[in-house]
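Team,

Forwarding the record for the chain on the shared tracking sheet. I've put the sequence and predicted structure together so nobody has to dig through attachments.
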Amino acid sequence: VLGFSRGLFSQVAYEVARGSLIKITFQGEKFEAGSKSWIPVKNSKGIETKKYLAVLNKEFPTDTLECELVTNLPPGKYNLYLSARVLGTIRPPVLVTDNLNVMPPIITNLSSKLSAGGMVIIASGTYFGSIPPKILISYTNSETGKTIKRICSVLRPLEYDDARGCGGKSCMNVETGESKVAFFIPEKLPVADYKLILFCVSGTTESVLSMTGPNIGTVYPAIASAGDEVAVEGLYFGQKKPRMWFEYIHPKTLKIATMPITIVTPLEYPDAYDHGGQSCMELETGKSLVRFIVPPGLPNGECNIFLDNGTGSAFVLFTCRFHISGKISR
């Protein structure tokens, strides 16, 4: 809400987002019906027209003239005029301010939190506008070189109260321009640097979003034999059981061979979105843990343990030795 009093015109710069509802209060006169406020706007041919504000008053004369406008104007600097009708006479236009700035949207920060089946991304910034933006992410497929695009849905409820009231919500604080919007990215999207585009009513803004795959931190014990229990810890293994396998050099053929790993259940963490369900990842932190029993038939010596959760993969060195026996746990 922008308030103006007689004698204070043209002294302050005001910033608003395109698509936002501006409510303006004029005081200092005995306003009669026919009082108007407008913003001069040039069309595509350079011809100047007037964008009139809606007058909300129902009864006249009034000491307070209430006006509002949805700023469907391109980003830029505008003038705001008032022509008051007082004692039956329409007075000459008065320049209220020459610093009404319609601001473009800007992303200032991206944060994330894990969710069932994927990740919630929170985009913060300024001047996204009251109406939720359309969100597009895209990345380049490393194998084909093609650009893959995906539209993401804005999550409800929105962060702020809508200036129109009536219990509505908005993705922008109309007083400050502070903005925030959240959207969901499925877990199965590949690890890549994504271009994030917000198509706001106030304009378009872009940022870069990096997706993180699984990361193995430790294997305990790092040396074990068939029948021993081994724990693999790390980050972002995913909500469901990842695919795991050994990769080693076959002692006879000297070729690379693989052997599947069966993850031990129950899993370490409760599934936050499935009552009674299990997960190998703590939802809030990404901390992950899986356990398996070293299978018989795994050759002695060094091998790699691979983990793939559909988004990305990671591996860690492991040693199988014949002389170690017994169940080992942390």
